Amino acid sequence: MKHDRQTGAPASAHLSADGTSTLIEVWGDTVDVRHLACSVVLGIAISLVAFEAGHAVLASFIHDAAIARADGMLVGLGGCLLAGALCARLFKPKRVVVERASDDTERLRVLAQLAAEPGGLGTLADLNNSTRAELAELGLLDLFTAYEARAAQDAHATHLQPGAR
């Protein structure tokens, strides 16, 4: 599938008749509005049919109407799961995954942003051996070591500046 070079969107992006995109973000994923509407309708229809059928069948075996209705609701929940599986099969996600290489400068910038968050980043000295081994396996141990060295140099330089506290 061809992708737009600037936006990364598919060249045949989902557009409505007036030329606007029909894609929206729902719970962190990109979906087509029409597919979402179809999924909602299918979900309601399948779960309602499952509930009514379950209630009718169970009512003939269970003489307490409240228990039969509650058990029918469980069958309806099973219908919800079935509808979810069916919709996942029918309507594939519309996300576009864009991979790009990042250099150490960008990674160090991200580490600085993480360090600025509440709770900070911590230090390599705080890590246990298995975590250190995992970082080394991922090729990130040297990056964290370089970040700590740079942060220590910055702190030392700030401390030596006249008027710094």
Report on the architecture of this protein.
It is a single chain. Helices cover 59% and strands 5% of the residues. It is mostly helical and 165 residues long. It has two domains: 1-100, no CATH class; 104-160. Strand 1 and strand 2 (29-32) form a beta hairpin. Helix 1 (33-61) runs antiparallel to helix 2 and helix 3 (104-116) packs across helix 5. The longest helix is centred in the N-terminal third of the chain and has 29 residues, at 33-61. It is elongated, with a radius of gyration of 28 Å.
Q: Would you kindly provide a brief summary of this structure?
A:
With 165 residues, this protein is mainly alpha-helical.
